[in-house]
Amino acid sequence: MTTTTEGTAPTGPASGEEMPLLRLRGVSKHFGPVQALTEVDLDIPAGQVTALAGDNGAGKSVMIKTISGIHPPDDGQMWWGGKPMNVHTPAEAAALGIETVYQDLALCDNLDIVQNMFLGRERMQRGQLNEESMENAARETLASLAVTTVRSVRQAVASLSGGQRQSVAIAKAVLWNSKLVIMDEPTAALGVAQTAMVLALVRRLADRGHAVLIVSHNMNDVFEVADRIAVLRLGRMVAERPAAEMDRQIVVDLMTTGVSTRVAQPRPSAE
User: Which fold has domain 1-7+18-97+178-271?
Assistant: First the structure.
């Protein structure tokens, strides 16, 4: 039995709510005898940051790989924009507008920013690479996200800081008309200033209307940017609530025991 806090209606939106961009109901996934996800419900609305929290082994990685087409679910249903969604490959997910930025970023150090952003999807003109078109598109995408710390779009990725590399990986995802951007530990191993830069970029994505799903162990980062928090425990969704209704201790309770009787402590306004 699912233990989400949002109910179990299989299709239409809850009363007074619009259908989210992505909806999961009863999604399960197993690998042999290992049950990685069990009857998971999750809504991911556009224009908001949804944080996915959970301890090691809770099923977070399987969840994002299920959404992104790497591990199609064994049971349950997913809806994309209100229509049934069945993706079996990352290419099919990308065609819908789902892009995932994994922790390793999948950037090539020996290539520059433009080459990385268009890797595998190069623009051609008369049988040759359309360098000018790709360079302009890369520059415009970075500018639209207010990424101003890179010297040039022809700068080698190997020369970038951790925060700059993360920004390029996110911009690469946005470049392809993505509607949902999934990020796996986007601030891992970053310093304070670089973390702030990446979190600001995450916030800008949501403000531009993208749906954002962020996986993070860092509760400070989660509460800095998340509009909503979903908590997985042992493959089950134990909570899905507005971030304002949670605090760090409640999330820890949910991650470790699956329940929390605490009331969220008021937090200072971000304004």
Answer: Rossmann fold (3.40.50)
